[in-house]
Each structure stands twice: as structure tokens, then as C-alpha cells.
Inverse folding.
């Protein structure tokens, strides 16, 4: 894994996201990294352990949390890929940030509480202004959720 999480490279004025913003102490603080697996194309990885208050019903994780983790891992992965494709250091200016254009989530199995969740992202489309990331979320080696994030380059009107 990389030494620095993608989200830690975001400029401070763009780091308030509830899911991954380093400047949001009440948020999830999700951290995503490059992850190379043998015989696979480039992938990204994140880990997250839900808290007891992330409960849907006793023993199982709330689906909205799972969707938000997929969302933030997808946009963070898109940002990192944009830097890589532009041959720039992660976090260099001007910032290459992405927002969610579409989020598709499919729940495959109940997600148990009390275990670390693993998110793995793969790129299915990479263009200058649009990057599509396919994400699998698993718990204890069981695929629980799949998602697709269509990430769109953040418009200048959203940046200060």
C-alpha cells in the first residue's frame, strides 16, 4: 500500500466530506490506497470497521453506510487515477478532485457487524473528465456489496 491515502492528499478546502474528509471529525475518515495484486490490473483498496451505531438490525451493517463507503472509495480512486494519468504527484495543484455523477449499489449478502470491511476498486473507464470505478465490498472474505461509481471531474464552480 501507498504511504499516503488518496484522501489525505486533498487540499484542506476540499476535505470536509462526511465519508472521507480528513477535516470532518464526525465523518467516516475513509482512507483509500493503490493496491497491486499479482496478475491483475491496477486496483485500489480501503478498509473500514463499522461502529455499533452503524447498525441496520442487530448484527448487521446499515446499507446507507455501505453505499457511502463505495461512493467515497470510488471518487478517491478516480482522483488518484487522474493524477496518475496526468503524470503528476498526488495532491499537486491544481487539485484533481472528482464528484459522484452516478452511484449504483447492489447488495449481495448481509454485511455482518464487528469485522473489518474490505473495498477493492477496479477501473472500467478512464477519461479526462469521467472515470468509472467498479467496487467490491467484502466482509470475512464474503462478497456483500458491489457498486459502480461514475466519477465526474469536479467543476470549477464547486471549488473555492
Amino acid at each position: 500500500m501507498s504511504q499516503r491515502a488518496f484522501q489525505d492528499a486533498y487540499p484542506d478546502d476540499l476535505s470536509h466530506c462526511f465519508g472521507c474528509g480528513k477535516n470532518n471529525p464526525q465523518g467516516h475518515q475513509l482512507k483509500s490506497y493503490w493496491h497491486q495484486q499479482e496478475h491483475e490490473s491496477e486496483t485500489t483498496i480501503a478498509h473500514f470497521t463499522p461502529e455499533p451505531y452503524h447498525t441496520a438490525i442487530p448484527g448487521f451493517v446499515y446499507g446507507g453506510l455501505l453505499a457511502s463507503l463505495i461512493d467515497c472509495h470510488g471518487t478517491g480512486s478516480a482522483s488518484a487515477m487522474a493524477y496518475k494519468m496526468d503524470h503528476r504527484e498526488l495532491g499537486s495543484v491544481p487539485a484533481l478532485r472528482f464528484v459522484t455523477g452516478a452511484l449504483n449499489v447492489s447488495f449481495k449478502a448481509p454485511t455482518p457487524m464487528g469485522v473489518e470491511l474490505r473495498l477493492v476498486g477496479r477501473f472500467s473507464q478512464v477519461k479526462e473528465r469521467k472515470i468509472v470505478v467498479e467496487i467490491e465490498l467484502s466482509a470475512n472474505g464474503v462478497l456483500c456489496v458491489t457498486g459502480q461509481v461514475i466519477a465526474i471531474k469536479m467543476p470549477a464552480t464547486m471549488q473555492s
Summary: The helical segments are 63-85. Residues 2 and 29 are 17 Å apart (CA to CA). The longest strand covers residues 142-153. Residues 6-158 form a domain with the Thiol Ester Dehydrase; Chain A fold (CATH 3.10.129.10).
